[in-house]
Amino acid sequence: MLNPLDDLPVHQTPEPIAHYGSPSRNAYDRYFFNGYTPDGELFFAAAMGLYPNRKVLDAAFSVVHDGVQRSIRTSGRAPLDRRDTSMGPIRVEVVDPMRQLRVLVDDADRGFHVDATFTARTVAVEEPRFTFRSGTLVTFDYTRLAQWGTWTGTIEVDGRSWTLDEMAVRGCRDRSWGIRPVGERESGGAPGGLPQFFWLWAPINFDDVCTHFDTNELSDGRPWHQSGAIVPVLDSPDAPVIDPGDVAEPMRDVDWSIDWQPGTRRARGATLDLHPWRGGSERIELEPLVTFQMLGLGYLHPEWNHGAWHGELDVADDTLVLADLDPMDHAHLHVQQLVRARWGDRVGTGVLEQLVIGPHEPSGFTDLLDPAR
Predict the structure, then answer these.
(1) Most C-beta atoms within 10 A of its C-beta, which of 125, 129, 192, 302?
(2) Where is this region: Disordered (predicted)?
């Protein structure tokens, strides 16, 4: 099946672009964005995912203000034209690849109107490839880029509006593609063991530089994926955003320490240690300010999980009062905390994303969902 993108020299296999390189039903291609003010008055995030072998495209936008999280989600049949990055009231526009992207939401009936543009502050950083097997089954196999930036434009939710141009709004985005569990859960075959997943991700914006950290760990604390980087801010608006290999400084190793909030699996405070190849160590202290539920974007959502079929087009919205949520409910485990970051004399803001399911010996977790004590 041909696609308009077949007219561009972008092919990676002998197949037309519409034919994904893997037959896995868990193939995906995804955008993610977040944005925030330093004081935590406003935190928002957006996502869009294409699942080519499921013929589904879904998207979501979610905002936290005054302890309330409002979300809108949409899903439907994926368009044949890959250039069509829209679904229902939500659209992502790639204005200038790797430099400027635009998120639009227009649904007056549900009280959402968004026209927000992300402009890069840094080069795009390619994280090491994520590959994980459960026995002989490839569970994860994907590539992701991370990039730090600023936001301009407007957000209006339920009559409350923010003009981002007048506020100090920074954030981060990622793009990932490959294979990871999505859609309806597959059944059949021999049962597996106790589910286990440990994930931390922390992109931080400082005035003159940005830092990156992530780790995926097994139950005994051994990392199966880990990376870190120190990334300078672009020195001009037209500076290159593709790293030839000598702009972002990759780390030799990374470490972390979390003071877990009792009764939860989320941080009360955290420390990140970045270990450059040049020697020495860089320590960053994180102070959580606001908690954003990734549920708002469909992560771990019991109904709106990524890639699930909702018909030709479906749109829904909801409201969460964050103080009323049970932090140990499975659907509420995946969070991004807006954090104030201190690195020597530098003070910045960013997120500490956390998803901890099952045992993790270094954290003292021994069961599927036992909380910190």
Answers:
(1) 125
(2) 1-21
Name every residue whose Cβ is closer than 8 Å to that of residue 9 and which is 6 or more positions away in sequence.
Answer: none
Residue 311 and residue 323: Cα distance in Å, rounded? Answer: 33
Q: Is residue 20 part of a domain?
A: no
pLDDT tens for each residue of 77-107 = 999 999 999 999 999 999 999 999 999 999 9
Residue 371 within any structural domain of the chain? no
Tell me how far apart the alpha carbons of residues 199 and 336 are, in angstroms, rounded to a whole number.
11
pTM value is 0.96
Say how many domains are in the chain. Answer: 1
Q: What is the DSSP string of 216-283?
A: EE-TTS-EEEEEEEEEEPPSSTTS--B--SSSSEEEEEEEEEEEEPTTSSSEEEEEEEEEETTSS-EE
Residue 343 forms part of a structural domain: yes
Segment 290-336, tens digit of pLDDT:
999 999 999 999 999 999 999 999 999 999 999 999 999 999 999 99
